[in-house]
Design a protein that fits this description.
Length: about 140
């Protein structure tokens, strides 16, 4: 059983959130907590020089609202939105927050998709704690 479970939520994989939460609840110790985390990628390089308003500031509130909807008012679920490269920030957040399990989603295997996505793969390779991959 795990005390602190991190569930990274990619904006394009939102339908998996309820399945990830359900899986995490089966592995959650009494009194444990779950954190839903979305990492917004920053605009980089040349384009960033011409943007005066950071889009992640505007997206943050909307994404946080969606995460809170997914949490459905559960007291043991916390929601966070941060910026950076998802493959790096997810593992950094997990370590800094003392998480002992990360629940990541993987694409359903099709002819071209027998591997983990790049972010899930990075999390599996770099995590300091256990990683549960949900298909």
């Amino acid at each position: 059983m795990h005390k602190k479970i991190l569930i990274p939520v990619a904006l394009d994989h939102a339908p998996l959130v309820s399945r990830k939460i359900e899986a995490a609840r089966h592995m959650l110790a009494p009194g444990g907590t779950i954190t839903l985390l979305t990492v917004l990628e920053q605009i980089g390089g040349f384009v960033a020089e011409f943007v005066t308003v950071k889009p992640e500031n505007h997206l943050s509130a909307r994404v946080l609202e969606k995460l809170n909807e997914a949490a459905d008012g559960a007291e043991d679920i916390d929601c966070k939105v941060i910026s950076g490269k998802p493959g790096v920030q997810i593992t950094k957040y997990a370590k800094d927050a003392g998480c002992d399990l990360i629940v990541v989603g993987s694409h359903s295997p099709g002819q071209e998709d027998y591997h983990l996505g790049s972010t899930a793969s990075r999390v599996v390779r770099r995590a300091h704690c256990a990683v549960y991959v949900l298909r």
